[in-house]
Amino acid sequence: MRAARLLLVASAASCIGILAYILSVASGVSPFLAFFVLAALLFIGAAASLERAPERARPLAWAGACLLLFVGTLAGFGAGFLTFPAILLGCTAAIRTHRATSERAGPAARPLGRLRWLVAVYLLVGLVLALWRFAMSSSPAPSPPGAALGVLWGAFLWPLLFGPSSMYVVLFALPGVALAIAAMALLPRSGDLGPPRRGLGIGGAGGLLVVGIEVGLAYARASSSAWFELGVAPLVLLFAAGGLLGAGLWWSRSGARAATVAVAIGGAVVLYALFSRPTVECMPNGVSTSAGPWWLPQLDGRLSSSGSSSSGHLGSETGSGGVIRRGDGVVITYRCAGGTLVEFEIARP
Fold first, then answer.
1. What is the pLDDT of residues 42-74, one digit of tens each?
2. Helices and strands of the chain, counted as H and E runs
C-alpha cells in the first residue's frame, strides 16, 4: 500500500509540475490543460481511498492514468519530453494500485491476467515498428536520450504513427474511458436500473444539453466557421452521444456493463466535438485554419492551403480568403472581411 500511495502522489505531482511548466513557456492557455488538473485530482482521490475504500481507489487510479495518457500525448514534445516519463509513472501507479488493492480483496478481484499478455504483445509490436521507423528515417539522428524517448513514445502510440493522420481522434476514447471508470467509482450504487423511461428522459435531457452547448459555442465564436459547420447530421450525432452519456451515467448506478460502455462512447464523442477547433478563424491580422470540421475527419495525411489578402482604402476593412485542399478530395473555401468570416463552403468529391 505504501508504494502504491507514493506512486499515486508522485503522479499527481507530475501532473501539476507539467502544467506549471507549460504555463510558464506557452503564449496562451489551452482548455486541454484542465485535464492535467483532473488527472491530478483522480490520483489524489485514489491515494486517499487506498485504506478505507480500495474498491474505489482502483478505478480512480486507472481513470487518472487514462487522462494523463490522453493529455500527455496531446502535449507531446512541446512539453520538453516531460509528459512521457509522467505517463509511464501514472500507468505504473495504476498497475501498482490495482495489485495492492487486489491482494487485499482476494483472488476474485484480480482480472489482469489476459490483459497483461495483450498489453505485452501490443508493446512488443509497437517497439519493433518504432525501431524500424527510426532506422528507416532520413532525418538527422537525434541525441541518444531523444532517440530513446522517441522509440518509447512510438512503442506506446504506434497506431497513431502508422495509421491515417486522423487517427489522433482515437485518443479521445481515453477521456471517455476515464469518465466511465470514474463514474463506476464515484456514483452511488443502487443495484437497480430503475424505470426505463426515467433513464431515457435523462438521456434526452443530456442530448439536448450537449446540443445546446455546441450551438452556444458556435454563436459565441462569430469570427470562426463554427456556425457554418452546424448541420442536421452533426447535431443529431451530438444529441445521440449526449443521450448515451446521460443515460449511461444514470444506469451506471446499477453496475451494468452496457452503461459503462455507453458512457465511454458518448463521452468520447462529446469531448471530441466540444474541444475541436473550427476549420477557419478570422482575426484582424490573419487567419487560422485546420483540416476541417470535427464531423469530417481527414482520411489522408496530405493537406495544402493557399490564401490571398487585400488591403482596403479609406477606412475599408482588410479582406482575406483561401482554399484548403485535402488528400481525400475535400476542398474548403473561405473568405474573411476584417475579423468576420463571410463565406465558407465545403465541397466533397
1. 999 999 998 888 888 999 999 999 999 889 888
2. 12, 6
Q: Give the CA angle between residues 312, 315, 317 to the nearest 5°.
A: 45
Closest residue by Cα to residue 155 from 67, 248, 87, 205: 87
Tell me the HSE value of 337 on the side-chain side, using a 13 A CA sphere.
6
Phi, psi of 152 (to 5 degrees): -65, -45
- Same-domain status, 314 and 342: yes
Last residue of a domain, one of 276, 300, 320: 276
Q: What is the residue-wise DSSP string for 294-329?
A: TTS--SSS-EEEEEEEE--STTPPPEEEEEEEETTS
Q: Which residue has the cell 481522434?
A: 169
Distance, CA of 64 to CA of 101 (rounded, Å): 16
User: What does the buried/exposed string (b/e) look like for 91-127 if buried means 16 or more CB atoms within 10 Å of the residue's CB?
Assistant: bbbbbbbbebbbeeeeeeeeeeeeeeeeeeeeeeebb
Residue 238 lies in a domain: yes
Domain span holding position 227: 186-276
Least Cα distance to 82 among 31, 23, 142, 125 occurs for 23
Question: Which region holds residue 321: left if phi is over 0, alpha if psi is between -120 and 50, else beta?
Answer: beta
- Mean pLDDT of the 308-318 span: 49
Convert 160-198 to b/e letters by CB count within 10 Å (16 or more is b). beeeebbbbbebbbbbbbbbbbbbbbebeeeeeeeeeee
Our count of domains for the chain comes to 2
